[in-house]
């Protein structure tokens, strides 16, 4: 049987996020997170996952109803309802993972409702669970993980065996009926002022560096924004962004309309990929017609369209067009920059929701 259900996390909370605190305190919405979201190599979200560490006495005779009741007690019924409803927006059940450090065993369950728990699989060893994650992802990361001393033992072991726990969804918004209405991305403007922060500069490879061979390479946020766009497109939920800074009352509130991605040939030609990134870098730095025309007339782009159960790429060939939203860019349907008045944020987000939802 299981006992002593408790929460552990690999995420590091941002206790100084005044924007999130203000929204929680001064809007009629609920703000929750999901511990893990798996997106596979076909750009589809396949699992929304929560987890709990348990003690285990070696007997697999605990009734599903009793396990379910323990999870309701651990999460809180309304919170669990909201997480299940959020998963349902993706046509998924909420996956719930139990694990025991002492035996290194893992149990996977699915929750269709707050009173409905289904056993999926038991794994003997954290190595087996790490491999399970790799299989549902469809790929393994080749990047070294940044080790953090205060990570739970579970997460350290998964990383040691090759595939970490999937990344979280930092925040989703639910209404008073516990129904999901939006995904919310917080951005801490650490390297620039809030008013000068521009997602598209990072998206378009403005930052450059030299690799070990001395060659110039370009940082980009393409994979990060791909993940966000998968969530938005697959769920049909709205995607809000709040940019904030720790010691500043400035903020930016935005709603994403669509994201058009550069059609980079990652698996085909790394030289061509770097050329595309170099030209995007030039445009992000210069913002002139000549560098913009080079991208518009030379390259392709694409958008994501979800046709259950698959994600499809809609490719746009040259010439690309900003008015037609085929130029690689993050396009917004709403953007508001507010300087020196943090108190406006709850009202603006509430008005934005009410205006478009009416």
Shape: globular
Which structural class do you get from the secondary structure elements? alpha+beta
Radius of gyration from the alpha-carbon trace, in angstroms: 22 Å
In helices, the fraction of residues equals 25-40%
Q: How much beta, percentage-wise?
A: 25-35%
Q: Can you count the beta strands?
A: 16
Pattern of helices and strands: EHEEEHHEEEHHEEHEEHEEHHEEEH
Uncertain residue ranges: none
- Regarding quaternary structure, how should these chains be classified? single chain
How many helices in DSSP terms?
A: 10
Mean pLDDT: 94
Distance between the termini: 49 Å
Largest sheet: 8 strands, mixed
Description:
With 358 residues, the chain is of the alpha+beta class. The protein is 32% helix and 32% strand. The chain has 10 helices and 16 strands. The chain has helices at residues 18-26, 64-75, 77-88, 126-137, 153-160, 199-203, 222-235, 270-286, 289-298, 344-357; strands spanning 2-6, 30-34, 36-39, 45-56, 94-100, 105-113, 116-124, 169-174, 180-188, 208-210, 216-218, 238-244, 251-262, 301-307, 310-316, 329-338. The strands form 3 sheets. Strands 2, 8, 9, 12, 13, 14, 15 and 16 form an 8-stranded mixed beta sheet that branches. Strands 1, 3, 4, 5, 6 and 7 form a 6-stranded mixed beta sheet that branches. A hairpin with a 4-residue loop joins strand 5 (94-100) and strand 6. Helix 2 (64-75) packs across helix 3 and helix 4 (126-137) crosses helix 5 (153-160). The longest helix is centred in the last third of the chain and has 17 residues, at 270-286. The mean pLDDT is 94.
């Amino acid at each position: 049987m299981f006992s002593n259900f408790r929460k552990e996390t690999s995420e590091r909370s941002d206790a100084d996020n005044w924007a999130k605190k203000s929204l929680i305190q001064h809007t009629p919405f609920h703000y929750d997170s999901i511990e893990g979201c798996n997106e596979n190599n076909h750009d589809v979200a396949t699992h929304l996952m929560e987890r709990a560490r348990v003690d285990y006495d070696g007997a697999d005779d605990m009734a599903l109803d009793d396990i379910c009741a323990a999870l309701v007690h651990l999460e809180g019924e309304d919170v669990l309802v909201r997480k299940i409803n959020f998963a349902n927006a993706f046509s998924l059940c909420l996956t719930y993972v139990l694990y025991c450090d002492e035996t290194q065993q893992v149990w996977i369950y699915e929750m269709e409702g707050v009173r409905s728990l289904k056993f999926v699989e038991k794994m003997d060893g954290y190595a087996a669970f790490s491999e399970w994650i790799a299989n549902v992802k469809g790929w393994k990361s080749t990047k070294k993980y940044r080790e953090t001393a205060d990570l739970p033992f579970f997460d350290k072991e998964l990383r040691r065996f090759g595939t970490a726990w999937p990344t979280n969804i930092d925040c989703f918004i639910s209404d008073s009926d516990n129904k999901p209405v939006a995904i919310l991305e917080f951005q801490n403007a650490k390297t620039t002022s809030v008013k000068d922060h521009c997602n598209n500069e990072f998206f378009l490879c403005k930052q450059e560096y030299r690799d070990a061979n001395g060659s110039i390479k370009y940082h980009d946020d393409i994979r990060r924004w791909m993940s966000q766009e998968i969530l938005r497109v697959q769920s049909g939920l709205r995607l809000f962004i709040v940019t904030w800074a720790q010691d500043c009352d400035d903020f930016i509130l935005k709603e994403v309309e669509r994201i058009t991605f550069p059609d980079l040939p990652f698996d085909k030609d790394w030289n061509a990929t770097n050329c595309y990134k170099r030209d995007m870098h030039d445009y992000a730095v210069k913002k002139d017609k000549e560098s913009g025309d080079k991208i518009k007339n030379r390259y392709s782009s694409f958008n994501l369209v979800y046709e259950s159960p698959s994600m499809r790429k809609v490719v746009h060939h040259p010439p690309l067009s900003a008015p037609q939203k085929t130029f690689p860019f993050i396009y917004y349907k709403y953007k508001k920059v507010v300087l020196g008045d943090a108190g406006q944020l709850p009202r603006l987000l509430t008005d934005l929701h009410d205006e478009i939802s009416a």
